[in-house]
Design goal:
26% of the residues lie in helices and 27% in strands. The chain is of the alpha+beta class and 380 residues long.
Amino acid sequence: MSFRNALTVGTVFLGLTTATCTSSAEESPTPDKAPLKAVAPVNALPTDAKVAEAPLNAQAAQSKVVHFRDQVMGTVVDITVWTDDEPGAKKAADAVFAEFKRVDALMSSWLDDSAVARINKAAGSGAIPVTPELFNLVQTAIGAGKESKGAFDITVGAFRGLWKFDQDIDGSIPKKSEVVARAKLVNYKKVQLNGKDSSIKLARKGMRLTLGGIAKGHAVDQSVAIMRDKGFDNFILQAGGDLFASGSKGDRKWRVGIRDPRGPRESSFAVAEISNRTFSTSGDYERFVVKDGVRYHHLLDPATGRPATKSRSVTVLAPNALTADIWSTALFIMGHEAGMKIVEARTELDAVFVDKDNHVHISSGLQGMLRTLKEPTEGI
């Protein structure tokens, strides 16, 4: 038996760790409660990488890349800005970090006084009034559960403490009977929303919400707006597996890579040049245990209560981080056969699947845009 808490380097030109996606056993705690556990699946390439043929114009030549970083929401938030105003960029970055901390305080289930924690504590008994912001986010998540036919389910928080992929990782695998019993508490349809008083109730005792990656996606979108409101249009903002590329680096689009699921930490098997879009990846290499030749990971299939088996990684390109977060998780669980039909039917989505057999499947919208560097590495 072996198990690993992986760490990666190379995002936004700097090292970065990442955290959970939504349909995991539970989102990672804030850094002061546990060490970071996972890897960053989407990587920006080094600054000397050739990303476009056009040279930088004279105005752009006065600008430079500046970096800012903080730890919040159980991950590292990295901001890379192309600017000639470093002091102003620092103020904008500080505002972004403050926004992440605000969202964390509202939506983390690891903080005893958060609204989500209060909802979980009241499961099976009473409704908890929440802010319109949280109500709307949960409502969006419930809608995603319906659209994905249950592949995306924020009540998988019920498995917390049973599957141990966070700070409690110990290599253990729960008994089938324990999983079956806990799975009875997983059902997004049992989340009761009351729009009249903006309250949320979990129908059964023992149910638990986990917003995990959806909260980070929300925080990324909020932070992109903050950066732009403060006059910065050219930047990459990454929080774990969620990366938003805004504008450009001078005359060059931002170039990002998709991590090789079984390759070295910094290895990408494909790259794309993007602007004003989000890349979000869900992968089985973020937090996992290998036991008796089987990989057990944190992305749980709500239908079985066990790690999903149809994908190694799914990367989604979308207009915003919240959408990309939701669908990278849902599509990972659904697999490429069912998932690609959804992607092709939705004009706002594109996706790259690495399936369980290590085959790559690319949606039509990324044909010609995505450049494959190599075949993904084989391995368990």
